[in-house]
Write a structure and sequence with these properties.
alpha/beta; 7-stranded mixed beta sheet; 12 helices; 32% helix
Length: 369
C-alpha cells in the first residue's frame, strides 16, 4: 500500500518506519522546515549548545520495548531532571520532597515526622474526594505549600483558576518524604546524545519512506494514497468547522549568557507576579558536554491563537464536548487514521506517543496481511 502521513514528529516517524519495514511505501509531509515536531533540537551556532527549540524534552519511561526502540536509533546518555523553584526570594527543590519541606518550614524533620506534619497539620483532611486541582493540592500538601509552589505557577501556565482545573493534573506530581529530587521515577531516563532531531532522522532513514519538509498538508494529498494518517491537530483536519479546540501555547524569550546563569536546567517561578513560568538553561540538558556560553529561554504561557503552535490541550468541559463532536467526525472518515498528541487531543509523554504509534502501525499491518 501507499501510506500518506501528515506530520514528521514522533508519531509520524515511528508509524512510517514500522509500515515501511512491513513493505509499505510511505510519504511523509511536514509543514515545518525540520523533523521531530516540538521535540526539535539543533545546536546554537554561537555557543555550540544543543537547544530544545520548543521547550525541553526529557525522555523517561518504564516501557522496556520503547526504551530499546529509541536506543536502536540514537545513543542515549543518562540524565536526571532536577527542577528548582524560586519562590518569595528563596530557591527550593521540586517535586516537593523532604528537603523542600524542611527548608520551607525551617524544620529538621525525619521522613516519618515530615509525613505526620503534613498529614496532621497541613493537609485539609475534610476533603475526601478532590475534584479540582485546588482541592487536590489542599488535600495533598495543605495551603502553605499550595500557595507557594502550585497556585501562581498553575494560574500562569493554564490561564485560569486552579479551582477550574481537574484534580488529575496534580495527581501526576509526587510528594516525597525523602531527599530524592529526581523529577521522574521511571526506570529509564536519558537524553539522545545527538538530539531528538537526529534520532527522528534516523527513524525515517528507510528506502520505503519519502519525506517532504516545508510542505503543508492539502486536501488533495490524501487522494494520492491508499490510506492517510493524520498527526496534526484534530480540529485542523476539519478546518475547525465546529470551532477550535482549546490549547495553551508558549512564547519563548531567548537570551545568552557567558558562563553558568542559574546552575540548573529548569528553574520554575512560583510567584504570580513574575510573568514567566520558568527559565530553562539548555547546556545543563547535556551535562556530558562543556560550553563556556549558555543559551536560555524564559517561557510565557498564554491562550493558543489560530496561527500559534499548540502545546497543551486544555480539555475542560467545553473542550470535551467539542472533542466528542470531532471524534465522531473522525470516526466517520474513510481511509483516514488520527494519531498522536494533536491528532487525539491528549497530553502524551514521548514514550506513550511512541508506544501508541508502534501499536497502531503493527495493528494496521496485521489487519492487512
Amino acid at each position: 500500500m501507499h501510506i500518506f502521513i501528515a506530520g514528521a514528529g514522533l508519531s509520524g516517524a515511528v508509524t512510517a518506519r514500522t509500515l515501511a519495514e512491513a513493505g509499505h511505501k510511505v510519504t511523509v509531509v511536514e509543514s515545518r522546515g525540520h523533523l521531530a515536531g516540538n521535540c526539535h533540537t539543533a545546536r546554537c551556532d554561537q555557543t555550540g549548545v544543543m537547544v530544545h527549540h520548543y521547550g525541553p524534552h526529557i525522555f523517561h519511561t518504564d516501557d522496556v520495548e520503547v526504551w530499546d526502540y529509541v536506543n536502536s536509533f540514537a545513543r542515549f546518555r543518562p540524565y536526571r531532571n532536577r527542577v528548582k523553584s524560586t519562590v518569595a526570594g528563596a530557591v527550593y527543590s521540586l517535586p516537593v520532597n523532604l528537603h523542600t519541606i524542611n527548608q520551607f518550614f525551617g524544620k529538621t524533620f525525619r521522613p516519618e515526622e515530615a509525613r505526620a506534619f503534613i498529614e496532621e497539620t497541613q493537609a485539609d483532611r475534610t476533603i475526601t474526594d478532590p475534584q479540582s486541582f485546588e482541592e487536590q493540592a489542599l488535600r495533598f500538601v495543605g495551603p502553605a505549600l499550595y500557595e507557594a509552589f502550585f497556585k501562581g505557577y498553575t494560574e500562569k501556565q493554564w490561564g485560569c483558576s486552579p479551582r477550574d482545573l481537574p484534580a488529575s493534573i496534580l495527581k501526576r506530581l509526587p510528594l516525597r518524604f525523602n531527599y530524592d529530587d529526581n523529577y521522574f521515577a521511571h526506570m529509564f531516563q536519558g537524553m539522545p546524545e545527538s538530539g531528538y532531531t537526529a534520532m527522528v532522522a534516523s527513524i525515517l532513514d528507510h528506502s520505503g519512506i519519502d519525506v517532504h519538509l516545508n510542505t503543508p498538508y492539502s486536501a488533495d494529498m490524501a487522494g494520492r494514497a491508499d490510506h492517510m494518517i493524520w498527526t496534526g491537530p484534530l480540529d485542523g483536519y476539519f478546518n475547525a468547522k465546529l470551532g477550535r479546540l482549546g490549547y495553551r501555547t508558549l512564547d519563548f524569550e531567548r537570551f545568552t549568557h557567558e558562563g553558568d546563569y542559574q546552575g540548573c536546567a529548569v528553574m520554575n517561578y512560583g510567584d504570580a507576579e513574575v510573568p514567566w513560568t520558568r527559565i530553562t538553561e539548555h547546556k545543563h540538558f547535556a551535562p556530558w558536554e562543556g560550553h563556556d556560553g549558555s543559551v536560555l529561554y524564559r517561557e510565557y504561557a498564554r491562550a493558543c491563537g489560530e496561527d500559534d503552535i499548540p502545546y497543551y490541550p486544555i480539555r475542560l468541559v467545553e473542550e470535551k464536548v467539542l472533542l466528542g463532536q470531532y471524534e465522531a467526525l473522525a470516526a466517520a472518515e474513510d481511509g483516514v487514521s488520527f494519531l498522536g498528541r494533536l491528532g487525539t487531543y491528549r497530553y502524551l509523554d514521548m514514550d506513550v506517543t511512541i508506544r501508541e504509534a508502534l501499536d497502531f502501525a503493527r495493528g494496521f499491518v496485521a489487519a492487512r496481511s
